[in-house]
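Run log // design_07
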């Protein structure tokens, strides 16, 4: 048992070392830099070992990417606008991080061609959206926003400007911008009394 524990600890250290290297490459050079040859050179881990744990660079990228995103828990304080502002400031911070700036455009392109990356992308987006959609459904149930409001569309309206500004305009989004986005979107679905 102790031998297995030692081996498992060694394997875990190797996996952690590899994933750290992949995250560093994604942050500094982008998606195209992650190849088994490059990761092997960066870490000293053989390609054979890499293939033992991951089917290819796409699977390695998928695992590293999945571990890079912070928690997406949405607070429920009763202050819907405040909850959403806090959440979308966090989204903005991730979108504007060096890892995302360098990797997201290539990830979107790769998702069109590579089934592993496509699945990663779909799962990542759904995992990010689901808690926000649920928070908005609760807001509808509590009468904070109109019962005709579509929570899925509201998530698009809240997150769209942040991604648009970063990916197309190459512009940052300030905290004040996030507050204005949330305010505008919520104003469009406020319960009229």
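design_07 sequence
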């Amino acid at each position: 048992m102790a031998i297995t524990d030692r081996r498992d600890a060694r394997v875990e250290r190797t996996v952690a070392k590899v994933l750290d290297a992949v995250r560093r490459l994604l942050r500094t050079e982008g998606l195209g830099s992650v190849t088994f040859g490059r990761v092997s050179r960066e870490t000293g881990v053989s390609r054979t070992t890499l293939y033992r744990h991951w089917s290819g660079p796409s699977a390695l990228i998928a695992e590293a990417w999945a571990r890079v995103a912070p928690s997406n828990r949405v607070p429920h304080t009763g202050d819907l606008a405040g909850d959403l502002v806090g959440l979308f400031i966090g989204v903005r911070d991730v979108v504007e991080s060096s890892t995302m700036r360098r990797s997201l455009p290539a990830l979107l392109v790769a998702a069109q061609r590579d089934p592993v990356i496509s699945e990663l992308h779909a799962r990542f987006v759904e995992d990010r959206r689901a808690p926000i959609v649920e928070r908005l459904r609760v807001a509808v149930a509590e009468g904070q926003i109109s019962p005709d409001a579509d929570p899925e569309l509201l998530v698009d309206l809240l997150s769209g400007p942040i991604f648009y500004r970063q990916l197309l305009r190459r512009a940052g989004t300030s905290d004040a911008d996030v507050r204005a986005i949330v305010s505008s979107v919520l104003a469009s679905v406020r319960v009229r009394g």
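The domain at 70-188 is CATH 1.10.357.10 (Tetracycline Repressor; domain 2).
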